[in-house]
Design a protein that fits this description.
Number of domains: 1
CATH architecture: 3-Layer(aba) Sandwich
Strand order of the largest sheet: 1-2
Distance between the termini: 24 Å
Strand content: 5-15%
CATH class: Alpha Beta
CATH topology: Rossmann fold
Oligomer: single chain
Helix content: 25-40%
């Protein structure tokens, strides 16, 4: 709601406010630290993988670019499709 509220507050100034919400990120040793969680995620994710941090960065780069100049007040979820899966 902070994103939406700020978008309404600053939109008239030409400022776009958006957010990025990543889910379980691929990182070094995650399979060792959280073996059952990683397996569960990969089994239930529509893309069968964890979120690559580069995908989160690319989403932020897109939002900072001219390609997104009409996107305002949005939260982009980067989660390999888990938010649309009946997984948990």
């Amino acid at each position: 709601m902070l994103t939406k509220s700020a978008a309404q507050e600053y939109g008239h100034l030409g400022i776009c406010i958006n957010s990025v919400s990543p889910d379980l990120l691929l990182r070094n040793n995650i399979q060792k630290d959280l073996p059952s969680g990683v397996k569960n995620w990969q089994d239930k994710s529509p893309m069968k993988k964890l979120v690559n941090p580069k995908d989160v960065a690319n989403t932020a780069i897109f939002l900072a670019s001219d390609f997104s100049h009409s996107i305002n007040g949005e939260n982009i979820i980067v989660d390999t499709g888990m938010s649309c899966a009946q997984a948990w």
